Amino acid sequence: MELTANGKDKTARAPLSFSAFQLLIFQKGGIMTGGILVLLVVIVFAVIIFISSMVNIVQQHEKGLVETLGKYSRTEEPGIVIIVPFFQNLRKVDMREQVIDVPAQSVITKDNATVVVDAIIYFQITDPFRVVYNIANFAIAALKLAQTNLRNVIGEMELDSTLTSREKINTQLRFVMDEATDKWGVKVTRVEIQRIEPPRDITDSMSKQMKAEREKRANILEAEGLRQAAILKAEGAKQAVILEAEATKEKQILEATGEAEAIRKVAEAEKYKIEIVYNAIHEGRPTNDLIAIKYLEALEKVADGQATKIFLPLETAGVTASIGGVAELFKDPAKMPKPGIGK
Question: For residues 66 and 51, what is the distance between their CA atoms, to the nearest angstrom?
């Protein structure tokens, strides 16, 4: 303890004056006012959080499931949804079409060939209640379901059918998955096989087979071309022969027609000549004696030749009579016709 000259303790506090007391009161009031402001800020912040928790927005592609104390209450459509915080909860479900990529996996076909297959699944939620409350994790469940059914579908098919029947595999797999996921409120819209990859040795064999098939088709096409060329050539030769024969036929017909026309013309001329001679003879009224003389002249011309045989008319009686008549003419000169007398 330290004493002053008057014997008082220096460390003892002096009594507060009025001004010091006022200052102390003001400081305590400021502390109280600051505490009230902080409290008000906290209350406002809590109210804002409460209101933001109470007012929710459901997007156009979503639907909301409202749970009251953990129990399903109602389904909300897109728009503003008001719930009671701490007592109610809002679950949003995306209703758009979604995709699940099935990883590549090895599958054994019916003829014991191993192929690597992967696929894509397109699905859309149709019932948000069932997809939330009937299945814990739809994506994993759909993936496992696709893998097992892919093994089943391809396992019932041979390798060649597997490689050429993608559409059939897609349809069967979509039907099976759509039936299985119906109770989950999901619609499987499409299943697409991305890749079917056979083993390397089978791929090499298929490549050789395709090459041989292409060469076979090329040889067939070449042979077909040669055959068509030969057929066309033969048809051309046939057509040429036919045309030549028709030309010869037309030529012969024309020649025969010409000859017939010539013969007809000659016959008409002979006919005309005979008619003229006949008419002249009848108009001249020849006697039997003149006819006999002309007959003998004709026989003379017949006999005057190099032939060793002479053909005489069958009318021998007529010939004998004619010769007898001529003989009588020479015996009786008075009966001989005079020159220039035709009647």
Answer: 17
Q: Specify the pLDDT at position 97.
A: 93
- Is 203 a domain residue? no
Q: What is the pLDDT of residue 210?
A: 81
Total domain count, the chain: 4
β-strand partners of 99: 122
Q: Spell out the residues 6+ positions from residue 146 whose beta carbon is closer than 8 angstroms to its own.
A: 100, 102, 119, 121, 173, 177, 191
Contact between residue 191 and residue 174 where contact means Cβ atoms under 8 Å apart: yes
Domain match, 114 and 186 both: yes
Q: Is residue 12 part of a domain?
A: no
- Stated pTM of the model: 0.51
CATH number for the domain harbouring residue 169: 3.30.479.30
* Residue span of the structural domain in which 294 resides: 285-305+312-343
For 242-301, the pLDDT digits (tens) are 988 888 888 889 888 888 888 888 888 887 777 787 777 667 666 666 666 776 676 666
For residues 164 and 88, state if they share a domain: no
Both 111 and 180 in one domain: the answer is yes
Question: How far is 155 from 16, CA to CA, in rounded Å?
Answer: 101
In-domain check, residue 5: no
Query: What distance lies between CA 235 and its chain's CA centroid?
Result: 34
CA torsion sign, 288 to 289 to 292 to 293? negative
Question: Read out DSSP for 263-293?
Answer: HHHHHHHHHHHHHHHHHHHHHH---HHHHHH
Instruction: Please give the residue that has the higher pLDDT: either 200 or 15.
Output: 200
Answer yes or no: is 11 within a domain: no
Which residues, at least 6 apart from 97, have a Cβ–Cβ distance to it below 8 Å?
122, 123, 124, 189
- 8 A C-beta contact, residue 100 and residue 146: yes
Which pLDDT tens digit goes with each residue over 172-188? Answer: 999 999 898 999 999 99
Domain edge (last residue) among 67, 94, 121: 94
